[in-house]
Amino acid sequence: MEILIKIISVAVGGAFGAVARYLINISPLANLFEKFPFPTFFINITGSFLIGFLLILLSDKFQVSENLRIAVIVGFLGAFTTFSTFEMEIYSLVRDRSLATAFIYLFMSVLIGFIGIVAGVWLAKKF
């Protein structure tokens, strides 16, 4: 039963995160700059800040339930932006002095992720 409550917590947080992302994408921010994808940039930077801030706040500064913490960090921020999790993983590697691994992860994620998009577009066009 405990795992079901955690899953529901993530789902509820995720629903709010997805809606928040959608609202930012349809807001006036969407047309702030002509060719620069400002809403996604804003979401990624805000999410990166929030995951760092809330991780400490909800773990070290305030006593909150694990369900609330995962609803906010895993659910809300996970749906709001996956970039924040990526940034937090790099931070953890740097904090643990695994600088080579952090750099490889950063570089390879961006490069191979981009190659994945190009390959996906190429493959879809073949259908």
Notable traits:
127 residues, mainly alpha
Percent helix range: over 70%
Order of helices and strands: HHHHH
* Radius of gyration from CA coordinates: 17 Å
Q: Tell me the quaternary state.
A: single chain
CA-based shape: globular
Structural class by SSE content = mainly alpha
Topology overview:
Blueprint: H1 2-26, H2 38-61, H3 66-80, H4 83-95, H5 99-126
Helix pairs in contact: 1-3, 2-3, 2-4, 4-5
Describe the structure.
With 127 residues, this protein is an all-alpha fold. It is 83% helix and 0% strand. It has 5 helices and no strands. It has helices at residues 2-26, 38-61, 66-80, 83-95, 99-126. The mean pLDDT is 91.
Task: Provide a concise account of the structure shown.
This protein is mainly alpha-helical and 127 residues long. It has helices spanning 2-26, 38-61, 66-80, 83-95, 99-126. The longest helix is centred in the last third of the chain and has 28 residues, at 99-126.
